[in-house]
Prior knowledge:
The protein is α/β, with parallel strands linked by helices and 289 residues long. It has a six-stranded parallel β-sheet with strand order 4-3-2-1-8-7, with helices on both faces. A two-stranded antiparallel ribbon has the order 5-6. It contains six helices and eight strands; from the N terminus they run ααβαβββββαααββ. Helix content is 24%, strand content 13%. Helix 1 packs parallel to helix 4 (154-171), helix 2 (41-54) packs parallel to helix 3 and helix 4 packs across helix 5. Strand 5 (139-142) and strand 6 form a beta hairpin.
Amino acid sequence: HGTGMAGLIAAHGQGAFGAMGMAPKAKILPLTFTSEENEGEFGALANAISFAASSGADVICISSSGGPNATLAESINAALAAEVVVVAAAGNRPEDTSVEYPALYDGVISVGGVDRAGNHAEVSVTGPKIDVVAPAVDIYSTSIDGKYRKGTGTSDATAIVAGAVALIRSKYPYLPAREVVHRLTATAIDKGPPGRDDEYGYGVIDIVAALTADVPPLGFGSATASAPAGGGPSTTAAAEPPGDSLGSDSAATVRGLATLGVIVAAGVTWAVIVRRRRRGVDPPPRISR
């Protein structure tokens, strides 16, 4: 599972013969945790988040959900205070019936899902904390032993959103975390009733618009991922520093608390993938010609 999430964010295509992630110039530093460690799953998750934030991570992608936990809340708040963008899966039906923690915490981008037609995915929970949505049905990505996997759920949508955040942070490295979130929500494609709603949040993420549109800044003061995003793009939020580009070697590095992987990198923007250990190998996809 973790390998698939890492692939959605940073798979580099193997010279056009393999899977391509959202931010293919990103790099992965994977860590593992299991629910038996420390104080259970959320204790281990909290420790992983704290380690990532203290190590300079810029994006944390969490594909795990459950109930509230004081230690987890502290680690999330510390990460947000350190200017880390935290992205979390809202939850999957039928196991979940509403948005779960840590996606429910203020300041965390809560991600729901859409199906292949761009409509609300039945697997995705709904609720007032949904911020944005992304593809969540029949998503192909990398798996272990050089194979591929097909996944459905808000975990996949969350990895896609985290990849988009990594690209935004790469292009606008001096943009505060809350402005990164604002850029993502303000440029999302509105679905359902006008404005924010419980199925689509502020809409389906539009990566091109998030990277290129003129977006009015939030300005000073506090803001969370669930704060209104405004009426749409109109003015520039931040200028791209001279010499910076999406194709440069300073593209976002993805620091992954994933299940598998061995790539280590440092010195540029970091993201984090967090997911508990799972068993099993997914079959490769069939390729239609």
